[in-house]
Amino acid sequence: METQILNSILPLVISTAKKAGAFIRKERENFSSDKIEVKGLNDLVSYVDKTSEAIIVKELQLIFPEAGFIVEENTLSFKKEYNWIVDPLDGTTNFIHGIPCYAVSIALEHKGEIILGVVYEVSRSECFYAISRGGAFLNEKPIVVSKNKHLKDCLIATGFPIYNFEKIVPYLKTLEYFMRNTHGIRRIGAAAADLCYLACGRVDAFFEYNLNSWDVAAGVLIVKEAGGKVSDFKKSNDWLFGKELIAANPTVFDVFSSEIQTNFSQNNKI
Q: Rounded to an integer, what distance in angstroms lies between the CA atom of residue 145 and that of residue 226?
């Protein structure tokens, strides 16, 4: 798809993300725990997730009707040459408990490559976005990853396992290493926001496992366009559907990813 076309689509996608975000913000004012549904162990959802997704899907069908959909709540699900990848409310647990940081994430994928990404963090009204080879932006201002050169100067973001604990041993070992050798670790609770905070230099690196494509698709493009590097835990490129992700500024990426790869590869041999 030509850059000119992506540039014409982008403002419409941003408007869609903000429209869904406005709905989420309004519903948070009177949200109560009796509106929560449980999909699985610690896997929560509400009518807010589902309605937000319906809003987004309807708008995206008008923006680019030729595209398919990969969405979290299965409002509409079918694949085509181009596909919208949507998380209507990343950080549902934060939202339910009234804790700031939850986001709308929308990406456009073409043959395994993300070519457009928008993440709207509702609590702070921050809109992060990028198109392929067009740079990354936060509320219309260009952003870049941090320039920290050493892990000891870095702040790390991650996501805690909530129901898949098969890799808990190497995960805890990795946490211990970064606790001892960095400025600290933050668990923000929304992977899309983690990646955008990396893209604008608030954190220097991020890792997590048991992720879905809608958690990371938009955020990864924004990281890459901001100058960051991304891989899966094996240092290959299966991060979109491989359910694990490493991202960092390019200076610390190798040492950061090596520690994760070493710990998790050892676990596979047990």
A: 6
* φ/ψ (deg, to 5) at 205: -160, 160
Q: Which two tokens stand for residue 128?
A: 């992060």
Domain 3-142 maps to which CATH number in 1.10.3430.10, 3.90.1150.10, 3.30.540.10, 3.20.20.70?
3.30.540.10
> What single-letter DSSP state applies at residue 65?
T
Rounded distance between C-alpha atoms, residue 3 and residue 154, angstroms: 34
pTM check: above 0.70 = yes
Structure tokens at 260: 């994760």
C-beta separation of 213 from 241 below 8 A? yes
Would you say the C-alpha torsion 101, 61, 135, 240 has a positive or negative sign? positive
Residue 210 identity: N
Reported as a single tens digit per residue, the pLDDT across 204-224 is 999 999 999 999 999 999 999
Which CATH code, of 3.30.565.10, 3.40.50.10330, 3.40.1170.60, 3.40.190.80, is assigned to 151-268?
A: 3.40.190.80
The stretches in the chain having pLDDT less than 70 are 39-45, 75-76, 267-270
Rounded to whole angstroms, the Cα distance separating 252 from 240 reads: 22
Q: How far apart are CA 127 and CA 13, in angstroms?
A: 11
User: What secondary structure letter does DSSP report for 78?
Assistant: B
Q: Is residue 22 exposed (0-12), middle (13-18) or buried (19+ Cβ within 10 Å)?
A: middle
State how far the Cα of 62 lies from the Cα of 50, in Å rounded to an integer. 19
DSSP 3-state of 40: strand
